[in-house]
Design a protein that fits this description.
- The longest helix has 35 residues, at 16-50.
- The chain has 10 helices and 7 strands.
- It has a 5-stranded mixed beta sheet with strand order 1-7-6-2-5, with helices on both faces. A two-stranded parallel sheet has the order 3-4.
- 49% of the residues lie in helices and 15% in strands.
- It has a single domain, classed as Glycerol-3-phosphate (1)-acyltransferase (3-Layer(aba) Sandwich).
- By secondary structure, it is α/β, with parallel strands linked by helices.
- Residues 1-9 have low confidence and may be disordered.
């Protein structure tokens, strides 16, 4: 089988196509950075000035992030930096009050997911929530800061689901380390069971791998990376796990989700 996992550190030849993708990747990240600064320093402050209703402002902010991420991935595809296909996009678009769970092979996963989801409440690190550049975006979008209190975080996520918002969770916690098998964290299953919210499983494949944990942006594969995103059936947690004790149900749900994802990915 051809080895497509080739980065500059493996001395792959710098063909014209690969060199062009190095330039377009740099331009794409520059586009992302400038766009993020404009949103943080101009767009969201103006919104806070003119939209006083916090619920309305949160919905507009979440929709703005959704469309900004969609614009970014379409820009990357137009530039020839990446390509993608998504199966079941309507399920992501139409889900409400749902915990969306996916594997996490690359840096762009959250961008792809939020580009196709609506009304998404992201869970962010407390350091990001208090960052002077990002704090305004986080507060405007009503994202959920992780302050290190598990009970408070579960309650905040459960409240968000009850209000009809969606959560996007990568239970691996961080991008999958190269060549390592990971154990899924159970936080999402406690949240889903507490709020009786459905769980929607998504698998993400990137061929050849790109932007993995520990890889710099300029580690360009020999061929253009292609994302395949598959949205699977919803798990009805109230029906399938409702009779279990909380700890047992959470453990079983987390394990079932991991097994399903690994089976689909043939890990």
């Amino acid at each position: 089988m051809e080895n497509l996992d080739i980065g500059p550190r493996t001395k792959a030849p710098w063909t014209i196509g690969r060199s062009i993708r190095l330039v377009t990747t740099g331009l794409s990240f520059l586009f992302f950075g400038i766009g993020g600064l404009i949103l943080a320093l101009v767009y969201f402050p103006l919104m806070r000035l003119f939209v006083w209703d916090s619920d309305k402002r949160a919905k507009i902010s979440q929709a703005s992030v959704h469309w900004a991420f969609r614009l970014f991935i379409e820009f990357m595809q137009l530039m020839g930096t990446v390509s993608y296909e998504i199966h079941g996009a309507e399920k992501l678009k139409n889900c409400r009050g749902t915990v969306v769970v996916a594997n996490h092979p690359s840096l762009l996963d959250v961008v792809f997911m939020m580009a196709f989801m609506r009304r998404t409440r992201a869970v962010v690190k407390n350091s990001v929530a208090t960052n002077p550049f990002m704090g305004g975006v986080i507060r405007s979008s009503n994202y959920i800061p992780n302050t290190g209190d598990p009970e408070a975080l579960i309650q905040a996520c459960s409240d968000a689901l009850s209000e009809g918002a969606n959560l996007c969770v990568f239970p691996e916690g961080s991008r999958t380390p190269i060549g390592q098998k990971v154990k899924y964290q159970r936080g999402f299953s406690y949240v889903a069971l507490k709020s009786k919210a459905p769980v929607l499983v998504v698998t993400i494949e990137v061929t050849p791998p790109s932007l993995r944990k520990g890889e710099p942006w300029y580690s360009i594969p020999a061929k253009k990376s292609h994302w395949i995103i598959r949205v699977h059936d919803v798990i009805d947690t109230a029906v399938d796990y409702g009779n279990d004790r909380a700890v047992i149900g959470a453990r079983r749900l987390a394990l079932d989700v991991q097994n399903k994802i690994e089976k689909e990915l043939q890990v």
